Fold this protein.
Amino acid sequence: MQRLVGLVRRCAEDYDMIKPGDRIGVGVSGGKDSLALLVLLAELKKYNHKPFELEAVTVDLGFGMDFSGIEKLCSELDVPFHLVRTQIAPVIFDYRQEKNPCSMCAKMRRGAINQTLLERGLNKLALGHHYDDAVETFMMSLLYEGRISCFQPVTDLDRTGIIQIRPMLYIHEQTVDNFASRMDLPVIQNRCPVDKRTKREEIKKLVYELSGRYPDLKERVFGAMQRYPLPEWEPHGRYKRPKDEEGVVL
């Protein structure tokens, strides 16, 4: 816990993600990444020298999923929990029968969560993207779109005034998996019919295969993103590859 909170704190400081008095909403889907982020930010909140408020927001897409485990976790963490019920899934899959549903789903989900943040007076949205997500997004843009691009660590949504932050960018996916397992987080099984059948999943497998031949692949891609730099990717602090006490990359 202490080591991972330290990586979240360092990422937040490098990109000036958290300011005193911020009211941060954590987008909690029920997956391991967002649940881990919720726990780590709740722990950071106890000791951070920049005081901030924290709430959890979950968008129910209409798949009939049970979010009681997340509500219980939020109660244990003393973090307010808000469940936003929608009919996004029936609209996309039953009514519109979208062949490529991911883009529309993401757009509608963002709209629902941003509206909730505005109603709650929250000025920042924390998302659970980690180190591997950044590398895979960069590779997707390069291979599928022919662009050198990736999401930003900090994104100012001008139309809403909400700022998106991604405090787990220094933590690897395997580390998140291990943390979620050790903490017995209430991970919810994704019921989306196109889960694990997306372009991102193809890129994930490709990166995994390439990493077997080039062990430093992810580190080199991530470092290139910061040195290039991509817009807003140059850290204010001095980035070092996150390692555990034995020198193993996290």
